[in-house]
Every structure is written in C-alpha cells, then in structure tokens.
Amino acid sequence: MQRSGFLIGVARRLVTGPPVYYVWMGLLLAVAAAGVASYSVQLQRGLIVTGMTSYVSWGFYIGNFTFLVGVAAAAVLLIIPAYLYDFGPIKDIVIVGEALAVSALCMCLMFVTADLGRPDRVWHLIPGLGILNLPRSLLGWDIVVLNGYLFLNLFIPGYILVHAYKNKPVNMKFILPFILLSIPWAVSIHTVTAFIYNGLVARPFWNASILAPRFLASAFCSGPALIILLFQIVRHYSKFHVKNEALFKIAEMIAIAMAINLFLLAAEFYKEVYSDTHHLSPLEYLYLGLHGKGKLVPWIWTALGFNIVAFIIFMVPATRKNFATLNIGCVLIIIGIWIEKGMGLIIPGFIPAPLGEVWEYLPTRLELLVTLGIWAIGLLILTTILKIIIPIEMGEFTAVEANSGGLEGRERHSAATHA
Amino acid sequence: MSHKKKTLRKRQSTSPDEAGSRTAEDRRGSSGEKNLVLPDRRTFLAGAAGLFGLMAMSSCSWQEFFQNQFTRMTKKEIDETVARLQAEYKEKYGKDFVVGTESPIDATLFAYGLDIQRCIGCRRCVYACVNENNLSRDPQIQYIRVLRFKNGNMDLEEADIYYDPEEVPEEGYYYMPVQCQHCANAPCTKVCPVRATWTEPDGIVVVDYNWCIGCRYCMAACPYMGRWFNFSEPVIPKDEVNPNTHYLGNRPRMRNVVEKCTFCIQRVRQGKYPACVEICPVGARKFGNLLDPNSEISMIIKTKRVFRLKEDLNTQPKFYYFFAT
Amino acid sequence: MNGKLGIPKTALPVLALGLMGLFLGLGSGSIRAQSREIPPEAKYESPSEKDIMETDSAREFPVPLTPLPKTITPCRACHGPEKDFPVNMKRREDLLVHKNVKLNHGGVRVWCLDCHNPDDRNYLLPLSDGKPIRFEQSYLLCGKCHGTKFRDWRNGIHGKRTGYWNAEKTYYRCVTCHDPHMPKYKPLQPMPPPQKPWTPKETRVKQ
C-alpha cells in the first residue's frame, strides 16, 4: 500500500516541474537515446568504430572514467569539511553529495562497460561464477571498491531517506559506522584507480609515485566544483538550504587542492625535464608535441590556463565571494581537470609506444556520441534522484502525504510550491 | 504555477479515486498503471539496450556464452568445446580443422635466441608467422616487429619499423625483431582481471580467447608491444588459413579479444620449431629447451654474450639476443 | 780431489743439494699442482671435439643428401689420370674452362687448389688424417680455416636448422647459404613493411 503511494509520488514528482525541467529532461533523453543507438553500432561492428588502436589501446572512455571516479570520491569526502566548518544541516550536504556520487559511479560503470571489448562476458568478473583475479589485478580491486562504494552510497542515503519518508527517527548508532566507512572508502576508490595506471612498468608516464597524490588533489578540485554548482541549482529549485559561506568555504578548499595539484605538476615537470631521459617523451608529446605530432598540445595548455585562472579566482576572496566569478571558476576548473585527467593522462601514457613509435589518437564521432549518451544518462540519474530525495529530505514527500493524497496532499504540495 | 494546477486537475479527472476510497486496489486499478509507465520507460530503454547488445553479439551460441575458462574445464568440457569449435571453423572456412589441446611437455622451459649479427631484416619471419598463426590481414596484425637501428645505438625512439629498401641488409644499419618475450615475471598476466592470460608450465604465456573480456589492461602493461587487439572481425583468406591449430594458440580468433605470439604452441608441443625459426633464411633465430644443457639455446647462453630487452624492468624475458661473430 | 768412485768430492754436496731440491720440488710441486688446479668452468670443452678427434673425417651430421646440382658430372671425367695432363699448381686468374666461376674468397689467400683436391677432383683437400673430404662433408674443409664458425655450426648457434627441436633435425650446410667461390651472403629483397595504424587524419573505412 505504502509502496504504491511512494511510486505514485515519485512518478508525480518526476513529471512535474518548471518548464526548464521538461526541456532539460527531454534533451537528456534525446542525447541518451543517441548514445544508446551509437553503442549498439559499436556492439555490432566492434571497437574498430572508435579511434583506439593497438598502440593507444585506451582512450576517451577510460579518460572520462578516470575523471568521474575522482568526482565520485570527492563528492563524499565533502562530509569532512561540511562537518568541521558547519556548512548547514550536514545531512542535506551529504545527501546531495551522495546523489552526485551515485550518478558519477553509474557513469563510471557505464564507461568501463562501453570500453570493454566483450561486455557479454562481464559475468567472467563475478567471483565464484567467473574468476576475479585478486589480489594481483588492480582492475579486480577496482571492481570490488567501486561496487562497494556504490552500495554504500545507495545504502546510507536510502536508509536515511526511508526513515525520513516514514517520519521515523534515524538510528545514528547503526548508520554512523557506514558513514565513517565511506570516507576512507572514497579515498580508496580513487587511489585504486590511480594504482591501475601506476603499477605498469611499460608506461613510464604513469609509473611515477606522484600519480596517486595528483589524482586525489585533482579530484578535490573537480568534485567540489561540481558540488558548488549543484548546490546552487538545487537551492534555486527547492527548499534545500545551504549557506553561502558553505559554498565559499568549499571554493577555498578547491584553491588549496589546486595549489597542491599545480605544485605536483611542477614537481613532475622538474624531474622529467632536468633528468632528460626518454621518460621525458610523453610529457614532451603532451606539452610541446613529439616528432611533429601534437594534437593534444592546445588542449593541455587550455587546461593549464583554466586551472591557473580558476585557482586565482578561488584564492582571491573578492572573486571567490562573487557568485558570477565563482561559477565561472567552477566551470573552468571542471573543464580543466576533465582535460588534464581524462585525455591528458591516458593518451600520453601510450605515446611513445613501448618500441618507440609515436601514433596519435582522437576520439571518433561515434565515441563522442556514446560518451555524451552516458553523460546524459548519468545526469538523468542525478536529476531523478534529486527530484525524489530533496522533497523527502525537506519533509514535503512523506508517507503520510503520499498516502493521504487528495485534498490535504494537494494543499500541502501547493502550499510548499508557493512558498 | 497554473500549469502545475492544470496537470493536477487533469489527473484528478482521470483517476476514479478522489477524496473517497483509499484502497490500494482502487489506486492501482486505473491511474496507478498509467502512472507506472513513466519511470519504467527508463528501465525499458536500458533493458532494450542490453538485450539489443546481447542480440548483436548473437554470433556466439549459448554454449560459447557459458563456456568456462580453459584451466577450469573438465576433460569432457574441453572435448565438447573442441568439437564445437572444429564444427564452427569448418563451416566458416570450409576446411577440416584440428583444435589441439596438447599439454606441456615434461621438463621443458622454452626460450628463444636471436642473433643480431645475422639478422638481415628481410621480414620473412613476420609473414611466416602471419600464415602459420592465422593472423588477421585486415585490419593487419603482425606479432613480429622488425626494428632497424643505426649502427652505434639501440635507441628505440630512433628505430624504424617501416623501412622499405630494395635490398637488405642496408649499409650502416642493423636489425632486431621483437615479439612477445614470454616473460617469466610477466607484467601482463598479473593485471588481467579475469585470468584470461597466464603462463603455462613450459613458459609460454597464453590467452584463452573465449574468456578474455577485452579490457586491454594487458596491452597497457606489456613493455614489448607483444599483444594485439582484434578491433573488428579478423579477416583471413580462406585458402591461406592454417587448419592445424591449438586451443591456446593459432585457432582463428573472434573480434574484440587480445592475441599474441604463442611460440607456435601448436608446433612446439609436437616437437617442431616455430614457424619463424624455420623460415629464417640466415638462421638468426634459435629455439629450444632451457632445461636441456645441450640444446641450441643453452649453448648460446653458455658460449655467447646474451642480453635481454629492458632488463631493468625485471620482466625476465625468455628472448635472448646475442651477437655471434 | 777425486774420491774412490771417481766422483770429485765437490760433486757430492752438489748432488745432495740437487736431490734435495728435486725431492722438495716434486713434493712442493705436487702440492702446488693441487692448489693450482684449473677450475672446471675456466676450461672450455666443446662437447663434440672429443668425438671429432676420435672418429675419422667421415663423421656425419644430419645434412641434406647432396649439395651439388645434377648437371655437374664427376670431375674425374676431365681431370682423371687417363687424360694424364699434369696439375698446374701455379695460382692464376685465367682458367681454360670453369670460366663462369668468379672467385672472391679471402682475396689472395685462397685459390682453387686451396680447397679442391689436385690429386682427385672428385674430392676436396683432406684433413690431417689424409682421407680426402667428400663434397657432402664440405663443412669439414670450411672448418679448417673457420674453426670458430664451424664450432658454432656444430652447436647450432650458426646456420639454419629445420625439423624438430627435440628430435631429428636437418642442418643446412655451409655451402647452402655461402657460395664457396663468393661466400658473402647475398642481400635479399625484404618483404613489405607493416601497414601504418589508423591515425586521426585519415578516415577509416568501416565494414
């Protein structure tokens, strides 16, 4: 009985909204459909429809995957500063962060599946049925930590929200260990992802100790930037409350993270340029071009420029506390980190190839469509989750309201929307 | 706001249960079902995509789909798989295939020797391998890459693979072919998430093509460009296909899986030399059993100065390069 | 002064010293020999050398049957004792017959009769055991000058072999790859280079 009331409530909330909501969802559905259609073409013809070759065997999909794992990790790690700096009701911050984490994780899983040559053999990864090569394979560990993280991020908010929906008190003693576990788990998912690349002796660009710290530093830039934007949108369209100071504090944190990121980049530069061995070649390809090939050069300098500008914006209080510049800074840093950690990390790892050849990579149109489709599906998931959980969290969408329906429900609902 | 009210009123008019009845059956009976379509549409899309995907891969039968990994298969399963594969290949290529499953020979550890003083860079080994191992012609896959260095260095970044002179050897250059080195401490086998690739007891690193999920992590891990990916369905001319195959070796592969040199496992486990050794016109390629002190490769290691590529990576390759005077 | 035996008196101490020295030398020599034993790994012993020394020059390797083309008639048809013309041992460039043979083997060091047996043209020069070397075993003659290559060939390091790595093989003779008159290996035409992989500039035809 209550379930159907819940489902009806969910359905009602999903189809009602301001006009921009319809435009947004329609657009996302269209892009998602295009992505699914493109993916089916890839399934039919094989990975030859992508730009990947045996020389650059990972590309756009894995780049996006790497970026999004960082977002997923950072989204949850905001719990710590939220708690320390009193951003507002911690639960609210955490809920939105975990919604972002869930959608980012779903996108990660979709990107990895899209990159797989044989997704029909995914069952080979299930331990017991198939073989999961633990402890030696870092991809095996990544499967474990990502799925565990997804479970935590569905379970914790699910638990809290089910209780909020039923107007029951939350048993903090029960849920707190899970919340506390999710913090080191968030660090671990990104560290494990960094270790996937870090342990490969064949790729000197990745086989540097600096990789895992850089991953975490850049994750702390991109994730919170997305959160700042997300908070503002949610705050605008619902009764969700977060203080401005909270947003500015997050921006300050991003400035520190970007400072660390830039310092680590400088350290990497020094080591390769001064030592001047063959290990310099991937960095040379990325920033200057190698043997006349340098398709990524304009991109990486743009990313570096964006990162530095965003760093200054977030560091200077005047620009940090001005929403116009703050939002510009957020967008710049998201794009900058997306380039640096996506294509700017994956592709130079393969150039030059182990036997010295330099062969470039650019994603094909089909790869771009599938990527856009996956992003659209991720944003659909995010919008759907927020559309459901924000009202529950705000107390607008409860079991009582759903079950009562009718006049009382409508009155309360219209009263809430008019407020 | 008014738009919202309108929709509410609209729904109200369609659903029979107004302020009155509150039973679940009433609610589910009419408007409940209609409203439930919307959230299901997303799952329908996802499900359709999944189904479409599986159907698109319908080139695989249900037995192939549920096939186990080679080392975990019972003898009966192996026999059934071999029979199924032989039937499939016969249908595709019109020849009677033999898919062998020979076990490693006892007390054997294969190693390879390559005499850089002798190699003239003629690439006959490359094409012998292509023919023997049923490599795809389009897109072209070649396990052996012959590097050409200028006299005086062994700089991989300055090496040329695409040389095409009238005659080889050319003055001032020397040649070094590279293929999978069958490392004893292989970086590729430890990263495979499903153990689709492993080292056999006789030292050969093999891939179970029906277990590989195509994640290409092993390709990122290999320091010698030993592994190649079938980005699309391999194309082998019917009259050039080699029907004497091994399950872990040169049987025709399918798309989106990784493949590599297997030291011609279908030949060496029957005592023959690999195809590249037999074809080399100058006898630069040597092959044998490291555990036999009188084998050619043992003699080479004993009497000649050998080196291995990228020794600092500690991969322990089994490919010994030497310069015989 | 001479003693009773006719040996001068001074010779005795010399003899004694000499004998002492001899015994000392022998004694210490044996000790020295024990401490100066050459460790086994410093001695290189080719495993087949012993066999070569013990058997005669007709030792067999698994080489193919005959290297000579079928058109060559037995050399004694012309160079036999019936014809009875003396062998001209002087090195010269201009031959009456065999004009198609261009000789470029070791420059001035090697001439026809440095390999071909002047007493019996059906054979090559003999090894030290006096038995002439058959053309089927020409590698023995090559090994006279090119000993290190011959040792490598015997061990499988030099030269081409086909067959089984753990069973019977076929060794290719020296002359199969190296024409004995112009032994430098002839250049070959290489097979085509690999195709270059797909790069972003080109369009890939997908079918």
Structure description:
The complex is a heterotrimer of chains A (about 425), B (about 325) and C (about 210). Chain A has a single domain (about 1-405), classed as Formate dehydrogenase/DMSO reductase fold (Up-down Bundle). Chain A contains 17 helices and no strands. Chain A has helices at about 1-15, 20-45, 60-75, 80-85, 90-115, 140-165, 170-200, 210-235, 245-275, 280-285, 295-315, 315-320, 325-340, 345-350, 365-395, 400-405, 405-419. By secondary structure, chain B is an alpha+beta fold. Chain B folds into two domains: about 1-55, no CATH class; about 110-320, Alpha-Beta Plaits. Chain B is built from ten helices and twelve strands. In chain B, strands 10-2-12-11 form a four-stranded mixed sheet. The longest helix of chain B is centred in the N-terminal third of the chain and has 33 residues, at about 25-55. Chain C has about 210 residues and is mostly helical. Chain C has a domain at about 50-175. Chain C has helices at about 10-35, 50-55, 75-80, 140-145, 145-155, 175; strands at about 125, 130-135, 160-165, 170. Chain C is extended. The N and C termini of chain C lie far apart (about 120 Å). The model of chain C is unreliable at about 25-35, about 40-60 and about 205 (pLDDT under 50). Chains in contact: A-B, A-C, B-C. Chains A and B meet through helix 1, helix 2, helix 6 and helix 17 of A and helix 1, helix 2, helix 6, helix 7 and strand 7 of B.
Quick rundown:
Chain A is mainly α. Chain A has helices spanning 2-15, 19-45, 60-77, 79-85, 90-115, 138-165, 172-198, 211-237, 244-275, 281-287, 297-315, 317-320, 323-341, 343-349, 365-394, 399-404, 406-418.
Which CATH first-tier class of chain A would you pick?
Mainly Alpha
Roughly how many Å is the radius of gyration of chain C? 31 Å
Task: Tally the helices of chain C.
Answer: 6
Beta-strand proportion of chain C: 5-15%
Number of strands of chain A: 0
Poorly predicted segments of chain A: 406-416
What number is the mean pLDDT of chain A?
89
**Distance between termini of chain A?**
30 Å
Q: Strand order of the main beta sheet of chain C, please?
A: 1-2
How many H/I helical runs of chain A?
A: 17
What global shape of chain A is seen?
Answer: globular
Summary tags:
heterotrimer, A: 419 residues, mainly alpha, 17 helices, 74% helix, globular, B: alpha+beta, Alpha-Beta Plaits, 2 domains, four-stranded mixed beta sheet, two-stranded parallel sheet
